[in-house]
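Reopening this one. Same input as before:
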Amino acid sequence: MPRRQICYGEPSVEKALGALPVIAEFCRRLDIAGIVDRACPVRDIAYVTHGQVIEALVTNRLTSPTPLVHVDDWARVWAVEEVFDLTPEVLNDDRIGRALDAVAPELAGIVGSIGAKAITGFGVDVARIHWDMTSISLYGTYRSPEPDFIEPRFGHPKDRRPDLLQVQAGLAVSADGGIPIWHQAYDGGAGEVAQVVPAMEALSKLAGERRFLMVGDSKLVSYPNLTAIIDAEVTFIAPASKAYVGAEILAACSFDGALPVDYVAERDAGKAEQDRGSYRVSEDTMVIKGRKTSEPDLHLRRIFVWSSARASAAAKAREKKLTRATGDLERLGRGLGGRYYRSEKQVIERIAVITRERRVKASLRTTVGNDPETTRPTLEWHFDEAALAVEAATDGWYALLTNLGPEVSTADVLRNYKGQEAAERRYSNFKGPIAVAPMFLKNNRRIEALISVICLALLIFSLVERAVRQALSPAVKLAGLWARQPAKPTGRLIFIALSRLRLIPAGATKPAEIPRPPPLQARILELLGVDPRRPR
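Same output, byte for byte:
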């Protein structure tokens, strides 16, 4: 096939080029098409391979994160043919569906291979990996899901749409650059606790001989999970839920007995010292017992952490909920004997609703009766100051559990755990710039495949961000990324900046041309080592 010549020239009739050359280069380095095609080969006479379609879908998600329909129309407007050598007609809905159907049974091998390629090809350090899960809402009923693939179910969605079916996705994100090196889709009703061990086993296989620290949320902590993690010689850090460390234990923590930690959260980096959040830590040992007497006890380090930001937030939240509960109770008092609260039972039922919604069960004290003269219900209520004082004593405190050795200081346990925001940030990208919204596909088989396409898009999104930051050094900001002042490069700002690039399609007598990129876009391409004029 002849190589295309792409040169700079004057703009005329244009196509959107955007980040296509960057995405194409990162797809090549990850060998996405090659890995997919080796797992899902097609006939020699096919116009396009499954790997090429998957790369196109990844590119579509990164440049035009809209519902997955009319991808061929997107390819006509964008320079997909010039960069990826794909004519728009081959990206019709039927061909995309067949590609998703083909890759779905092979996702475990595909995801592992691409993750390994990211680690070795981009030098991603996997000494610390952060694990978390999120939910994705779906449109449609999916009454007959295909077996052996994730099943849409009702659950507790993060987007607060309990009326929609959902599936779930888990991400393993490296502390180095926040790179999602591994992902897995799950049933909508899958419990997070039960997914920890399979995720740990997959990450151990991916890391190979490398030892890694697994950081997760409170769902990581259960006796079976911790036993499996320890037996696999993996270290971990996770917060303890109230089931393991109750409020009475946190309330007994000593602020003066805890040591200050020299740690500044990323969100506070630009603030004056007096406005930054502060942290204190103390430590003891916790023993977690198995259900059977024959199961050995687990002896873990327990790190008590006090956060000024958490303490302030807890105090404000308590004041807000008490204020709202007070308003609800006063309105209830004014309505006693009226249309809605004629009986003692109706009043008690309303108090139960207020208690649940405002979360004041521990402190609200009520007495409901009937006035002997009017037979109207009566209500007396107050907030128990002693109960509020106990609640306030826990403000800012939480506990971390770990099996890290004593060579890792108490303060360093906290510093390692604070990297968990890397996973949370990628989920924000997952549902923000990558725009995962309620989805509608033909079947659950395609849903599972599309989630992997989205996660691969997130992988490239994160690798681009990391590459620019490494090339600049962490402290440098890039002029022009933000309208008012230089900004720290983020994947979102980088892709927005690159979206301005255009391409003039080839004519009868001249090759395709790219108008000379503005200084900011030229600088980004230079930092990434991508020449948009070079054919793929």
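So the earlier flakiness isn't reproducible anymore. For the record, The first helix runs from residue 20 to 30.
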